[in-house]
Write a structure and sequence with these properties.
The protein is an alpha/beta fold. The protein has 4 domains: about 180 residues, GAF domain (Beta-Lactamase, 2-Layer Sandwich); about 160 residues, Rossmann fold; about 80 residues, Helicase, Ruva Protein, domain 3 (Orthogonal Bundle), CATH 1.10.8.60; about 50 residues, Homeodomain-like (Arc Repressor Mutant, subunit A), CATH 1.10.10.60. It contains 19 helices and 15 strands. A 6-stranded antiparallel β-sheet has the order 3-2-1-6-5-4, sandwiched between helices. It has a 5-stranded parallel β-sheet with strand order 8-9-12-7-13. Strands 10-11 form a two-stranded antiparallel ribbon. The radius of gyration is 34 Å and the shape is flat. It starts with a helix and ends in a 13-residue tail after the last helix. The mean pLDDT is about 85.
């Protein structure tokens, strides 16, 4: 009867706890108004020592304590983890709860907050469960209890999992409200002429925010812009953003890849030609500058122009006029020039391969696009965008990118920048069969030793011995089994040669020719 009464009492207490938490969540307006009252309720009704809610920062990849019960502000600030680090990081990485009856016996418990005194006589239990939104893990809920032989950690895990589920649903709703408010605020800033991210560029990192500010500053003017950055960083997108936010946005935007056009035809492409100007010129043809009249011309890979074309381009920049190939009529042009290059123009000038006067004409307003390795917080945003894009194009909806895949994307150095990332995600989408991009869908260049099971399996000593054995065998093969000659080739004495042959159980006779045998 006492057992039934105890069970009944626990169920009543659980119902009252969940009712109180539900009331708190209904009245919540932000994350803080959720987390702190929920923990206080858990502390009061479950008689816990401490409790905390951690949330994952999607930008930095760091797990930090959002709210806590029984911890000081200083202790809360110390509670920071990386994904997979400690019990909290492991729960967030794997998405499964962990219950530790005695924290002193589990090496995964880091005591990062320093709230557990190792000298205390009473043992502490730690229970941690994931907070999920859909299939994404956004944080953890954990509590500390005094250890007891009657402690039921499975029951604690079950109850905390229910609470974590309730919290996650409210966090999802608040996140949607927050995103809608941010969208409206962005629209308001746009109407007021304030800084905002261009619609065609993905990224919220500090480095890209500086680029957005430069775009805003130069867009309304007619200043010549020189965009610099490594291949694949998105220089053309920046040029488009400048044009779309300029007073010429309703006029033509003409693109020219200077590296893709042979020198024999680039002058005709840029400035046009008259009928009969050269073999095959059956009719007169407008050049890109004429087609871009009153609009913007984007000269990509400007560093690849020949000296002859550089002179003609300099005249257009200075005088705003040119002649078609084979023509005598001077044509006036009103066009804004945006140039881009991934080459070091200063080095080219020093080598007399790029005109100094042209450089200064182009370099009126320089914008540097950071490589992807310098804006790692944007990698997940870009990966999500490309996954959705190519999932839609290939009729293969991608629901999520797995945590191991995100880890591989985050640690790679991306020599090909955003273009390489886009190609990797497109490939992964095509390989996916379950709506998820997994680590093994990524190219071999992105794989790590851990993900492929190809880590170091031998010690340095073993590897050096293997190399030494191979070199001795190669030397014996080269000398037909002559140990003295092999020793001279390897730069060692015959005595050492003999010792090594004995150690590695090598038979020199095996390498002798038939005649020598």
């Amino acid at each position: 009867m006492d057992v039934l009464s105890d069970h009944y009492r626990r169920k009543v207490d659980e119902i009252l706890l969940l009712q109180e938490i539900s009331t708190i969540l209904d009245k919540s307006t932000d994350e803080r108004s959720i987390c702190e009252p929920v923990l206080n309720t858990l502390g009061r009704r479950l008689s816990i020592l401490r409790g905390s809610i951690t949330l994952l920062n999607q930008v930095t990849g760091e797990i930090a304590i959002e709210a806590a019960y029984g911890l000081s502000e200083a202790q809360k600030k110390k509670g920071r983890y990386k994904i997979g680090e400690g019990i909290t990081g492991t729960v967030l990485k794997e998405g499964q709860p962990i219950a530790v009856p005695k924290v002193s016996e589990d090496p995964r418990f880091l005591n990062r907050t320093e709230a557990r005194d190792k000298r205390q006589s009473k043992e502490t239990a730690f229970i941690c469960v994931p907070i999920k939104t859909g299939k994404n893990i956004i944080g953890t809920l954990s509590i500390d209890r005094l250890f007891s032989e009657y402690l039921d950690t499975e029951e604690d895990v079950r109850l905390l999992s229910i609470v974590a589920s309730m919290i996650s649903r409210t966090l999802q709703l608040l996140q949607k409200i927050k995103e809608e408010e941010e969208r409206r605020a962005m629209e308001s800033r746009q109407e007021g002429g304030l800084l905002m991210r261009p619609a065609n560029i993905i990224g919220n990192s500090r480095a890209m925010q500086e680029v957005y500010e430069l775009i805003q500053q130069v867009s309304k003017s007619d200043a010549t812009v020189l965009i610099r950055g490594e291949s694949g960083t998105g220089k053309e997108l920046v040029a488009q953003a400048i044009h779309q936010n300029s007073l010429r946005k309703d006029k033509p935007f003409i693109k020219v890849n200077c590296a893709a056009l042979p020198e024999s035809i680039i002058e005709s492409e840029l400035f046009g030609h008259e009928k009969g100007a050269f073999t095959g010129a059956l009719t007169a043809r407008l050049g890109r500058f004429e087609r871009a009249h009153n609009g913007t011309i984007f000269l990509d890979e400007i560093g690849d122009l020949s000296p002859t074309i550089q002179v003609k381009l300099l005249r257009v920049l200075q005088e705003r006029e040119f002649e078609r190939v084979g023509g005598n009529e001077t044509i006036k042009t009103n066009v804004r020039i945006i140039a881009a290059t991934n080459r070091n123009l200063e080095t080219l000038m020093a080598e007399d391969r790029f005109r100094e006067d042209l450089y200064y004409r182009l370099n009126v307003f320089p914008i540097h696009i950071p490589p992807l390795r310098d804006r790692r917080s944007d990698i997940t945003l870009l990966a999500d965008y490309f996954a959705e894009k190519y999932g839609r194009l290939n009729n293969k909806p991608i629901k999520r990118i797995s945590t191991p895949a995100i880890d591989l994307l985050s640690i790679y150095h991306w020599p090909g920048n955003v273009r390489e990332l886009e190609n990797c995600i497109e490939r992964a989408v095509l390989l996916s069969t379950d709506g998820v991009i997994h680590g093994h869908h990524l190219p071999p260049t992105l794989q790590s030793a851990e993900s492929t099971g190809t880590g170091i399996t031998r010690t340095l000593k073993e590897s050096l011995q293997e190399l030494e054995r191979d070199m001795i065998q190669d030397a014996l093969k080269q000398t037909g089994g002559n140990m003295a000659k092999a020793a001279r080739i390897l730069g060692i004495t015959e005595r050492i040669m003999g010792l090594r042959i004995t150690t590695y159980r090598i038979d020199p006779d095996h390498y002798k020719t038939k005649n020598e045998k």
